[in-house]
Design a protein that fits this description.
Order of helices and strands: HHHHHHHHH
CATH architecture of the largest domain: Orthogonal Bundle
CATH superfamily of the largest domain: Winged helix-like DNA-binding domain superfamily/Winged helix DNA-binding domain
Number of strands: 0
Largest sheet: none
CATH topology of the largest domain: Arc Repressor Mutant, subunit A
Helix content: 55-70%
């Protein structure tokens, strides 16, 4: 069943205080889930808020601690890792959402995941316990795991059945 995208809700507030309106809309969005600053600004401008007002409102919320890229990155890493994605893909997705490289590295390192073990779990879930028997199947599994965001360092020995640390 195809899911229909909803159009952003118009603000409906008076335009006397554009920053106040932007702040209200941003708080409503943050009440649903964490957002990066860039995501929040994009959503506000899609709802018809002037870019300057959106930028100022997001900056104010960041200073008050209501919006945090660090908190967003922590939540995002945990969520995506639990869904079977690897650090390469998670890092790229965070970068697309405007999170800085230092924050990305810090949260991927602090997450405490054994990425090689996660890659093995994802492989077993998709292909079963049996290791690939030929190069074609090995390549197929490796491509899948790379698509999911696991790098060569996570796959080394995994598809051969060798236990590496």
């Amino acid at each position: 069943m195809k899911r229909l995208k909803r159009k952003p809700e118009p603000l409906g507030d008076s335009t006397d205080d554009p920053v106040g309106n932007a702040r209200k809309a941003a708080v409503r969005l943050l009440a649903r889930r964490e957002h990066s600053a860039r995501e929040l600004q994009a959503k506000l401008t899609a709802r018809g808020i002037e870019p300057d007002a959106a930028l100022e409102a997001v900056a104010d919320l960041g200073r008050e601690g209501l919006q945090s890229d660090a908190r967003f990155a922590e939540m995002y890493v945990r969520s995506r890792a639990e869904r079977g994605y690897g650090p390469v893909r998670i890092g790229a997705e965070l970068g697309e959402r405007g999170v800085g490289d230092e924050l990305i590295r810090a949260h991927l390192d602090e997450a405490g995941y054994d990425w090689r073990a996660r890659a093995e779990q994802v492989r077993r879930k998709r292909f079963g316990a049996r290791l690939p028997q030929d190069w074609r199947e090995r390549s197929r599994q490796a491509r899948f795991l790379q698509y999911r965001g696991f790098g060569a360092e996570h796959l080394r020995g995994l598809l051969d059945g060798r236990a590496e640390s």
